[in-house]
Amino acid sequence: MTSTDFPFIPYTQDSISEKEMIERSKSFYEKVDKRRSVRDFSDEPVSKEVMENIIMAASTAPSGAHKQPWTFCLISNASLKSKLRELAEEEEKKSYGGRMSDEWLKDLAPLGTDWVKEFIDIAPWIVVIMKRAYEFNEDGSKHNNYYVTESVGLAAGFFLLAVQNAGLVALTHTPSPMNFISKALNRPENERPFLLIPVGHPAKNAEVPSLTRKSKEEVIHYYE
Length: 224
Ligand SMILES: Cc1cc2nc3c(=O)[nH]c(=O)nc-3n(C[C@H](O)[C@H](O)[C@H](O)COP(=O)(O)O)c2cc1C
What we know:
alpha+beta, NADH Oxidase, 4-stranded antiparallel β-sheet, two-stranded antiparallel sheet, binds flavin mononucleotide
């Protein structure tokens, strides 16, 4: 029992056998291992209802002191998408044209990316995840949020898996620096752009870079 003046409710979860646990955890791993960042989108529409479900799944993520310090801007307006593309390309042209170090450009080479961000126009939805650095109280004073980057990072991870689960694809995009987004979307001063994520169906002949993920031995350090 927890000692607090605030209400608590029972937590219930179906218990499953060890065998089923192994099967489920393996099939989930196999499923998420198929997720890829896709840069070739089709313009095939996706319903707003699907996008709302995906966002609400993302918004179930844990957050520091349960502050849920995120806003998801859900954009389908064609002229706004074009504006975002234009502004993103302006920044990316500068980044690829000298702002990024040689080492960074070398690391990006296998991905085949450049400053052209056609997908912002083509994908039916652009989701901009904003992180909320703080909240405003009713009297206009500020109220802290906690572990904002960690919390919004988790929500973004949930978001990407929800996209995959819905049979769609996404690209985690960071047109850097991202301040132009706050202005273009007219966001309040307590919000900062975190990620710009096009969501939709893959183009018919979409390709992704052939990448290898780290092995179990590389990512797990055991203390038994
Ligand atoms: C924080 C973050 C920022 C990223 N920024 C970009 C980006 O600006 N442009 C891009 O094409 N991919 C971007 N990516 C996608 C990565 O390149 C991609 O996740 C990585 O190459 C692994 O590929 P996968 O997602 O298909 O497994 C970003 C990913 C993360 C997590």
